[in-house]
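Example protein was shown:

_____
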Amino acid sequence: MKVLVTGGYGFIGSHVVERFEKEGYEVFIIDNMSSGKVKNVNCKHKFYKFDVEDKKCEYVFKNNNFDIVVHLAAQINVTTSLEDPFLDTKTNILGLVNMLELSTKYKVNKFIFASSAAIYGNNQNIPLTEEEIAEPLSPYGISKCVGEEYCKKWNQIYDLDTICFRFSNVYGPRQGLIGEGGVVSIFMDNITKNKEITLNGDGEQTRDFIYVSDLTDALFKAAESNISSGVYNLSTNSRSSLNNLIRILNSLKKIKGIIRKEDRKGDIKHSSLDNTKIKKVLGWIPMVSIEQGIKNTFDWYSINYKTEENNIEKKKLKHNDKVKRYLPYIENVALFILVIVLSTFKNGEYLENTMDLKLAYIFIIGLTHGGKQTIIATTLTSILVTVENILKGRSVFTLPLDTNFAFKIGMYILVGVILSYIFERYLKKEQSQNKITESLKNEYDLLRNVYNEILVEKSVLQEQVVNSENSFGKIYGIIKKLDSLESQYVYSEAVEVIEKILKVKDVSIYSMDKNNKYLRLIVRKGKNDINMPRTTTLDYLKEAKTNIFNGELFINKNLDMDIPMFICPINDDYGNPIALIMINSVKFERLTLHFVNLMHVVTNLIKTAILKAYKYEEAMRDKRYIENTPILKREFFENIKSIKKDEMEKNKSEFIMLKVKNKDKDVNSLSHLIYKTIRKSDYIGMTSQYDLVLILSNASKSDSHLILERLEEKGVQAEEYNEEYMYV
């Protein structure tokens, strides 16, 4: 399932993201990074840098079918909401409406909205229930109140499941220094920097503090529940004073001191939310006490919150900003001083006659800085010309009447105004082009990201449909290998079918004798991790015996290392087991219900193919065997040899061939004598040279001596049969 978390890089959002990812969700984040930090999230996710009110968010919804949206993105600073209500409204209301609209358009199953206890205002009916009248005291509280109403109406009009949670004072690791509940992080910050704590009032004001993990637990349970709408207080239903908070912090680290100030105007004295409703509906209860929560938060701050380094970095940035701000003034003054020096130089008369340094100075400043600096340069030049004339003995009162002086000053002012106009026009045009370019670049980057995501999804889908081992074509091609009427061929191909479809590395098939006592290996593919012998008794499989006789799949749930992970019996029409499919070396993470269901399908196909082959062989017995003997006719025997050769090349399955030397004995009686000695998985056949030959399955060359001795005891003389293709 997919979940979108807006504000996912923030304090609460990062914890929500980690919880959903831990529970197996595919997580997506929309965050404008105004207060969130990438380092807050250390789990797998996809990120989009947008404002929640941005229409570009539609690209995110359009290309991802979200099941759940958790809307946490908001402007949370009450002071900011008072200073700039428009910004607060833009994010908290327009952003919410955009998310609701897109959730409806793209069929989101459930929308969770983060509201606030700020909507209650200064209501003293402690603890506050959801039925209390909302009387917010700030634009922030108003926006949350309006947001709840939007969610309620969206549920009624568009049938979108919307759940609103009124958070009490949330605290925990990664919390910033602003917003609701920030008193904990502010105190933590002061303690970390070994500063005194500032306390407004007597410290007996109380708050309903809730630890962030308890809050995320409630949000996740709501997402998984059948709740379709409603407003719920999310709190601990308890009150803790600031003095108690300071006491807990002091037990963790000695506080340097407390600076006491008067109560802040508008501060609420006591606050606590009744959580009875959510506990009843979700079966949720807060698990972390205030003492444990503060300790967890302090431990995190001690390790991760490097305030001094942040302050140093901020100072560096401020210093750089100041340098950039004053650099044009410094350059202007420096160039003006250079003009003065050159004008008073010994050869200044030559320079003055050949070029106007003052005019050049205005040109340079106007072309490089324009605007304000050009006006300053023009003013300084006019002052310099005036001073020069006064030093030459001219009267201040007569200078304006001097046409030469007036022309010079007018020329400087005209040039300054023209340059300033040209520069400002060029600058505005450049800024406009930059904005257009930036907008197009952002649009391109967004489309490029969307294209890349679609390309990845397309490639995965194409791989599954066309090229993957799970595609219909590949599965059909694999299963087609079972379409044979030769049981030995079906057994041989069955292990490859299981290996390719189930992606396992240790597969073996054993036959069972008529007395249901002995198991003999027919074919194996893989590394035989549990060292199953070639021949064993049914007792070796212990508790799997019941499943085998009932024709049911056995799963080694006790993880017994001596028996296979899965054993699937192949029973005939009368319920008698004739063979066992054994699978081992399955990766632990693949032991899922899907794997078991897939194995049921594959093994049932193999069962059907094997039983069909047995029935065919039984029906064709007269044509396959020499009359009244267990000897395969030449064409059928050659087919078995070919299958055994393929098994040896593909699965490294060993077999040996023995040629009977008793040509003086009756073939009929000799074959029956041999048949009683060999196993069910072995074969007797007639070659094109009319030699009587035995094929002994899963027997190595080192076993031949023992087998020859056993045959000799029965009066059968035999020897190894060599052909040019034999590699045993």
